[in-house]
What we know:
Two copies of one chain form a homodimer.
Chain A: H1 13-31, H2 38-45, H3 50-56, H4 59-69, H5 89-105, H6 107-118, H7 122-147, H8 151-174, H9 187-206
The structure holds a DNA duplex (30 and 30 nucleotides).
Amino acid sequence: MERKIVEGVVRNKEKSKEKFLNAVGKILRTKGFSALKVNDIAAVAGLDKKLIYNYFGGTDQLIDEYIKSQDFWSNVKNEPDLDINDGGQGLSKAMLLWQFDYVFKNKELQKIILWGLLENRSSLKKLADDREESGDALFKNISDPHFGEHSWRYRAIMALLISGIYYLDIYASTNDNTFCGLNVKTEEGRKEIEEALSFMIDKVYESK
Amino acid sequence: MERKIVEGVVRNKEKSKEKFLNAVGKILRTKGFSALKVNDIAAVAGLDKKLIYNYFGGTDQLIDEYIKSQDFWSNVKNEPDLDINDGGQGLSKAMLLWQFDYVFKNKELQKIILWGLLENRSSLKKLADDREESGDALFKNISDPHFGEHSWRYRAIMALLISGIYYLDIYASTNDNTFCGLNVKTEEGRKEIEEALSFMIDKVYESK
DNA sequence: TTTTTTTATCACCATTTGGTGATATATACT
DNA sequence: AGTATATATCACCAAATGGTGATAAAAAAA
């Protein structure tokens, strides 16, 4: 006969695992991934580090499990109520502007994006795969048909704009400097970027 | 009377300082800035770590001095032989394409760019200031007069394109994933990006 | 040559870090 | 109630890391 799993108030494996995962998130948001050390994670979780080895196998696996548990790109996906009779022009704009704002506000996502530029962690690669896959739906179903032979140009432009958005948002978070004279932290600076994004989408769709 | 500075073959302060600075560069290129530890730097330099404290005051100051010694953005500056009767259209294109290639090849610069997104080191801030200042010449003298009331739109677009270039180049170096379906590591992928850059500059100048 | 000073090494320490075996105890089962 | 076991803690270790005082040795000055 199976023994019932322990779920007391003091001893509770599932709750402890949760505590560790939460601790990873907290440290990631506040100190960044370079601060993700066993001792510190255990301290923040309020539990013994030995449990990290027992429950996850080690810090790396714990971190991987954390990344998997957070569906960072799930919110990014399509706004279904937008019409696409314009070949995705409105959708493209909305998506870029939304991401520009979303990444700016989500410090944890910023850390994750940066992490993906620094390390080759398998769980981070999977994140990138997910992002690619969800984006592919937009391309294959909407923009590719609309742009035909120029579909790759549209993709290249989106690649530049999206990665530019990432960079500028992160730059603004860690830096007080301007970029090309723009202060991406301020309302005015961000407005300029937003108008530029909108402008460029218009131009790509005009030139089809 | 001043004592002559020591410059033997075995003991030579200036050469030793050089060795430390070179060691920093080597580690930065090969292992990244997270590997810049006193013991490792000393080992690579082939000297005792005590000298790092004696000559520079510590690892941080040594690293700062290294960053200052490398004029990372000096090469980026203008190509003076390009005419600017087109309001800087050709210059803008050439600059973007050149940077796209330059950053892709220069792994050390990639690390520095990333570093600037992670830490708030004063020497890195100075680097950013330098970059801004050298770019400002282009804006103030060429694009601002040409674009008039739309000068900030041009700057915002350049900010997006340049930061997109940085991101994609670094992404390509550390990642095997595609981005918006493009493989920025391959000749074809990079060609698409280059054409997109060129296309967008044209559009901005058309719409003036 | 002898002395002085600069340059470099060495031995050593404290702290941080990752990791584990032995042990205690809360919970579940009988 | 008593017993078994999953859960959690503790003490401890080895290696890595940052940092320094005492000392050796090379080069310059006498």
